[in-house]
Amino acid sequence: MRIRLLGTIDVVLDGAVLPVPGLRRRALLAALALQRGAVVDKDRLVGIVWNDDPPSTAANTLQSHVSYLRDLLGDKGVIQYRRPGYILDADGAETDVEVAQQLFDRAVRTSQLTDRARDLRAVVDLWRGPALADVAGLPWLEEQAERLEDLHARAGHALLETRFALGEHAQLMPELEQHLRDNPFDEQMHGQLILALYRAGRQADALDAYQRLRTTLAEELGIQPSPDLRELATAILRQDPALLQLPESVELSGPPVPAQLPAPGATFTGRQADLDRLDTLLASERGGLAIGTIAGTAGVGKTTLALQWAYRVRDRFPDGQLFADLRGYDAGPVVRPIDALTGFLAALGVSGDQIPVQVDQAAALYRTLMTGRRMLILLDNARTADQIRPLLPGEPGSLVLITSRDRLSGLAAHEGALPVPLSALTEAEAHELLTSVLGDARVIAEPDAAAELARACAYLPLALRIAAANLSWQPHRRIADYLAELRGDSLGTLTIDGDPQQGVAAAFDASYQALTFPARRLFRLLSLVPGLDLSVSAAAAVSDINAADARVLVGRLASAHLLDQPRSGHYAWHDLLRAYAADRSAAEDSDEDRAAASRRLYDWYVEAVVAAADLLYPHMLRLSQTATAPMFADHAAALTWLDSERANLVAAVRQAAVPETACLLADALRGYFHLRRHSSDWLVVGESALNTATALGDIRAQAAARHSLGTAYRCMGDSPSALQHYDEALRLTRLCGWQEAEATALGNLGIVYQAQGRLKAAVGRLTTAIALDRRIGRTAGLANNLGNLAAVYLDQGNVNAAADCFGEALELNRRSGSRHGQALALTGLAQAYREVGRTDDAIWRFTEALQRCTEIGDRDGQAIVHIGLGEVARDQGRTTDAYERAQAALTLARDGGDPRTEALALNLLASAARDPHEALRHNTRARELAEQTTVPRTQIQALLGLATANLGLDDLDQARHHAERATNLAARCGYQLLEDEALAISATIHLRRAGARQATG
């Protein structure tokens, strides 16, 4: 006998299909079948079958339906009554749901691709239509149907992956294309189609498919393709041989989902009424965005309850879980909504350079990405409703759970949040918690002392866990003796004023006094560490001990429940414990010792960041010198450490406990932010450093902060803000006599002026910078500024001067070993050679530049080189090669998010296109992007492209209009080469008109 739920509900008995008449009977059979082998309470069955609105006769009607189903199944023993409900016998029947799950599990376990494909195909074939199709309108069953459809989708995805690994590319393409028509944002399947096209020898079609997806994501969602897809496109561009290798095995994977919930903790007791109240959110979640707020005093167990419940229900949210500690009551600054949104967007797959820095824009993108997702979002330790609102999804389907010491009444009033007030444990629950840690025998032996200990801890879970942990380390100590020690401290006051926090303090005191002297000292000094968590190395630095000793002591604090370990190698603590440690430090440590500890910590931060900088961006000017010793094995290790510590480093700069060193730290992070483009953090660090440096009156540090902010705004495309900060940086560097930074500021002003089309001003700034670099002997700065000046010369048509500057910059960069500098100089030199017709030399330099860009992972540089090589190919009549180079450049430019480079790639694509209508489409898009950039050079190139495209379509009026605009703008800005090109197009238009008049005359 098989009960079938994957479609309409029926029963297959001895080969015959038996329908189940009646909605309530089908619902009852489905409810029992989905929980086969488990007793289902009668009241629960009534709630499922009648949607919590049963008739007065529901109990009798339920029994009648059970009798009917027993007769239908032909065996009264299949459905049995067992108090307090009914059970579908595990041996008497099977369900197609169980068969599907078993086959899927077997497919996951096997390493044989053919066996896996067979099992997965069998899973997919079990579906006869939408699961539980004929019990619509009953929420619990609809929820189960969604889970089953998720299994169906995962099996289908897995089958496609497996067939793909078996080499069935041609057979899969129609299925993939049909799937993507129905699911246009399924990036995983887009990747499969792109790879299938490439393996079928259709590289151009593969890149075209990627570009279509990139356009769809940008226009519909405002995001870039995932990093995996971008890497695939890059590998296709390189024609990576590994792409053609079929794997011997493949691990099944679904779309990656965030799983950010911290571990729930080992000891949890009671709270059943609170768990039941939270369960009511699951019903409301179907009709709208479900929001719950757990509110209560510090140490009452809000976070523990939230995590316990979240882990129980997380399977109901197949798209994952997001978590943020908002630090609403921490001694340091609270987490801003933009900071939490930045973390959420990163978890949802948005790269750092694509995350907006304005909270409204970030929240809008977050709401867009959450559309159609079912996620559980836990916002811990919130302070106000305003901190929460930007983090709420915009559509139903997800559930948001919030913990706070405040009731957040505004969320209940305006957003319909369900309040879950949390009080201290009951006496029975406190007894259960102590028993779970200390064991039955110990608590039974001293029942009165255990009860008194619970009362002394004010029945607060945090205090009870700490007291119990302290006793667990002393297995032979009597609870009464421990209690007497507490009485000797502050226990006597607890029953007078009823303040529950004194119970926490008493528990903290006992645990603290039980520590060794070194552990107590470390515990106190850790209160000086800013940020969300801390590493063993940070603990060693702040306490001035070696890492091995610090690891032992931190482990002891964690064992005493005075620290938690939220992630590998990092420790954190409850904000009450941090405040307690700070109080103890203020009472026991001298001001001099505390200041020395903070200095050690900040010195270690700077040393580590500078060591990373020495590897990642060694030629960037910094306030600090090189590290005293290497700390990282290679570039990857340095970048991984910076990524891991980013939040703590930002917090250290914001807190500025050691102001001078905080300024050094902020400046050393500038190169990291330039690499990673974490714009929001970059601006926070820059503004914090500027405020700190201003308060110190440190002009040099103010100049560094202004320089960092200018570069941040320049990378964000905000030229006016960049100029404001660079101008002030220049003034400050001259005021304090910091000539290296003065040359850097002059050079960066030249870059911005060039982007704005102010070429004469750019030349003035850059030549002044170069003269200063030569005078002070700063080779790295000289090479950078020579390359930037050469680029301006090239725009002005002074090709020989440009070539000379590029050549000198290349030689300097080769001496210093700067691969990034070499790539820039080689690219510029190649462009100069192309302008004077030295085609072979241009190709040689472009090819070498592409190699350097690839070595250092400079995607924008790669795109520029592909454009250069494509222009050479187009000039030589090799339009197919030019078209492929343009496609490659377009892929790289779109992944990098630079509209200027994307516009250049589109112009090249248009010039290489055989169809003039296609060319016009590409040129029109390039013009739209150019207008967004406000960069005259890019705008002129787009106008020239449109003029050429319209010329190809014989629309001479439009061609003349665009050519004249390009000519005027180029002349006004001084772009001589572009003006010459515009005049040449105008001349062609004039000749075409004259020829047309002559033909008609």
TrEMBL record:
Residues 1-90 form the OmpR/PhoB-type domain. InterPro entries: AfsR-DnrI-RedD_regulator, BTAD, NB-ARC, OmpR/PhoB-type_DNA-bd, P-loop_NTPase, Sig_transdc_resp-reg_C-effctor, TPR-like_helical_dom_sf, TPR_rpt. GO terms for molecular function: ADP binding; DNA binding. Residues 1-90 bind DNA. SMART domains: BTAD (SM01043), TPR (SM00028), Trans_reg_C (SM00862). The keyword Cytoplasm does not apply. One of its GO terms (biological process) is phosphorelay signal transduction system. Coiled coil: none annotated. TPR repeats lie at residues 703-736, 783-816. Keywords: DNA-binding, TPR repeat, Transcription, Transcription regulation. Gene3D superfamilies: P-loop containing nucleotide triphosphate hydrolases, Tetratricopeptide repeat domain, Winged helix-like DNA-binding domain superfamily/Winged helix DNA-binding domain. Pfam families: BTAD, NB-ARC, TPR_12, Trans_reg_C. Belongs to the AfsR/DnrI/RedD regulatory family. This is DNA-binding SARP family transcriptional activator.
